[in-house]
From TrEMBL:
One of its GO terms (molecular function) is metal ion binding. This is Peroxidase. Disulfide bonds join 35-117, 68-74, 123-322, 202-232. InterPro entries: Haem_peroxidase, Haem_peroxidase_sf, Peroxidase_pln, Peroxidases_heam-ligand_BS, Secretory_peroxidase. It comes from Cicer arietinum (Chickpea). PROSITE patterns: PEROXIDASE_1, PEROXIDASE_4. The keyword RNA-binding does not apply. The gene is LOC101495715.
């Protein structure tokens, strides 16, 4: 009798542990049986949205970076809306300029998936998959997306402070943010290459282009500064004024961003810093000369970033709506 009880207990523990392991394991084909339409729905939705709003890809990439770099990692906490009791990450000052197109495309995908496969696909998996596929649409590199994440249940504005790079930061400050999260300097520079697409608001760099000090003026190409001043002339009355980060190929994911930096065609202070800093400059020069190298390091870094702080099993949930916990 005792032997039979022991056998049953051992069997129970075996099944329990294996269920937990299967819940916690990220795989490339996680939704193959759970939601066979997953990839098709993502593809159809992002294609439609990108055609409608060509800034969607760059916007989604930025949203992804702002979610995964935080201490709680890739758990789509950036998508949660504030409540009367809690100000979320989304409403931290640094995130107020996150473009609406990125939030919209995630909502569209989630809505379609909830109709096809209710309570099955997490917002976290949607965000990383949409980011990867949108980048490929712009000519960027493929990287593996391991699936099976759960969504976080917490999002607090104050946790953002000090964990996201600001355009006014020095390169040493930005480097520290990434190295503290386990990235090398080369990987940090590669991820900065995300600026090869997208735009920056004039308010983020006007202090630079209207500064007449010799150190600032020598960083920018003189004709480029003149063009930026014209484009941003009315920024005080129109805070939404912005310019492309890469003026040469703004809608193509390539290495032209790095080729622009030695020519003084960087928009932000942090862009110029990558080339002027002796530690990061060699990587800028390598990526400018070798797009394949840039793509390889960028893809590796994005995969690494997508796995930071991932929640699985009971550590998270599958939200029914991406902007609120269940």
């Amino acid at each position: 009798m005792a032997s039979s009880s022991t056998t049953l207990l051992s069997l129970f523990l075996f099944l329990f542990l294996n269920l937990n392991l299967s819940e916690s394991r990220l795989t490339l084909d996680y939704y193959q049986k759970r939601c066979p339409q997953f990839q098709q729905i993502v593809q159809q939705t992002i294609t439609s949205k990108q055609i409608q709003s060509p800034t969607t890809a760059a916007a989604t990439l930025r949203l992804f970076l702002h979610d995964c770099l935080l201490p709680n990692g890739c758990d789509s906490s950036i998508l949660l809306s504030s409540t009367p009791f809690t100000k979320t990450e989304r409403d931290n000052d640094i995130n107020l300029s996150l473009p609406g197109d990125a939030f919209d495309v995630i909502v569209r995908i989630k809505t379609a998936l909830e109709l096809a496969c209710p309570n099955t696909v997490s917002c976290s998996d949607i965000l990383v998959t949409a980011t990867r596929d949108l980048l490929i649409m712009l000519g960027g590199p493929h990287f593996n997306v391991y699936l099976g994440r759960r969504d976080g249940r917490s999002s607090i504005s104050t946790t953002v402070n000090g964990f996201l790079p600001k355009p006014t930061m020095s390169i040493s400050e930005i480097t520290k943010i990434f190295t503290n999260r386990g990235f090398t300097v080369e990987e940090m520079v590669a991820l900065s290459g995300a600026h090869t697409v997208g735009f920056s608001h004039c308010s983020e760099f006007t202090s630079e282009i209207y500064n007449n000090s010799s150190s600032v003026s020598s960083s920018y190409n003189p004709r480029f500064v003149e063009g930026l001043r014209k484009a941003c002339g009315d920024y005080r009355n129109n805070p939404s004024l912005s310019v492309f980060n890469d003026i040469m190929t703004p809608n193509k994911f390539d290495n032209v961003y790095f080729q622009n930096l030695p020519k003084g065609l960087g928009v932000l202070k942090s862009d110029h810093g990558l080339f002027s800093d002796p530690i990061t400059r060699p990587f800028v020069e390598t990526f400018a000369a070798d797009q394949d190298r840039f793509f390889r390091v960028f893809a590796k870094s994005m995969e690494k970033l997508s796995l930071l702080g991932v929640k699985t099993g009971r550590r998270g949930e599958i939200r029914r709506r991406c902007d609120q916990i269940n």
